[in-house]
Write a structure and sequence with these properties.
alpha/beta; Rossmann fold; about 20% strand
Length: about 230
C-alpha cells in the first residue's frame, strides 16, 4: 500500500481527474469523491471512489473519519468541487447567489474542517482550495457576482486556517487559475487562443510540486496559475 494519501473532491470533473491521475502516477492512495456514480474513470487499485453529498456536513465528517480510520493520516487534500454561473448584481437573485455560496464554499468547508483538524493533530499536511480571479479581485466579478462572492470566501477561509496553523507543518493554499483549457470552455469561447490558457495537467503538476518534499518548505497561500491569459 502506498505510504501517502490524498483526498480529491469533484474527482469526476476535468481538474479532479487531472489531479487524481497525477497523484496516482506518484503512487498515492487517492480517495476521490463524486456527486453521482457513473462510468469509472480510473481502474488503478490505489484509487477509491465514493459518492458523497458535500453539502451534508455530517456525511462529510463521517467520510473523512473513515479515511483516517483506514489510512491513519491525510497528507494532501485538493478540493476541486464547485461550479460557475453568470449573473450581474442587478439580475442575480438572492437564491441564485446562495446556491453559488453552497456550491463553491460550503462544499469546501464541510470537507476542509475535519481534514484540517486531522492535519493539525498529525502536524503535517497540505490543503489546496480552488479560487478564481473573480474571487481574488472584485473587478473580475462583473457579470458573475454570485460566483465572485462565493469564491472570495475561499481566500478568507485559507487566511483563517493558515493563522490557526502558524508554526505547524500545515499549509492551506488557494490555486487561482486563469481560463482552464476544458472542452466546455473551448465550446463557449471558440475564437480564443487556447494555447494561452492553463491546462488541467499543468495545474495538477503545480499542486503536486507544492505537496512534494521539494515544495514543502514553501508556505504560499495564493498560487496564481495563469499561463499567458
Amino acid at each position: 500500500m502506498p505510504s501517502k494519501t490524498i483526498i480529491v473532491t469533484g474527482a469526476e470533473g476535468n481538474l479532479g481527474q487531472a489531479v487524481t491521475k497525477k497523484f496516482l502516477d506518484k503512487d498515492y492512495n487517492v480517495i476521490g469523491t463524486i456527486h453521482k456514480k457513473g462510468n469509472d474513470n480510473f481502474t488503478d487499485h490505489n484509487f477509491h471512489q465514493e459518492e458523497l453529498d458535500l453539502l451534508n456536513e455530517e456525511n462529510a465528517q463521517n467520510f473523512v473519519s473513515g479515511v483516517i480510520e483506514k489510512y491513519n493520516e491525510i497528507d494532501v487534500a485538493v478540493l476541486t468541487a464547485g461550479g460557475f454561473v453568470t449573473g450581474n448584481i442587478m439580475t442575480s437573485k438572492t437564491s441564485e447567489i446562495a446556491k453559488q455560496y453552497q456550491l463553491n464554499f460550503e462544499t469546501a468547508l464541510n470537507i476542509v474542517r475535519p481534514v484540517f483538524a486531522q492535519m493539525l493533530n498529525q502536524n503535517n499536511g497540505r490543503i489546496f482550495l480552488i479560487g478564481s480571479q473573480a474571487g481574488l479581485s472584485p473587478s473580475n466579478s462583473k457579470g458573475a457576482v454570485g460566483y465572485g462572492l462565493s469564491k472570495s470566501l475561499i481566500f478568507r477561509l485559507a487566511e483563517i486556517m493558515n493563522a490557526e496553523a502558524k508554526k505547524k507543518n500545515v499549509v492551506v493554499s488557494v490555486i487561482v487559475p486563469s481560463i482552464i483549457d476544458t472542452p466546455r470552455n473551448r465550446e463557449s469561447m471558440p475564437d480564443e487562443d487556447f494555447s494561452n490558457w492553463v491546462s488541467t495537467s499543468q495545474i495538477a503538476d503545480i499542486i503536486y510540486f507544492y505537496s512534494s518534499g521539494e515544495g514543502s518548505v514553501i508556505r504560499e497561500p495564493v498560487i496564481k496559475v495563469y499561463n499567458n491569459s
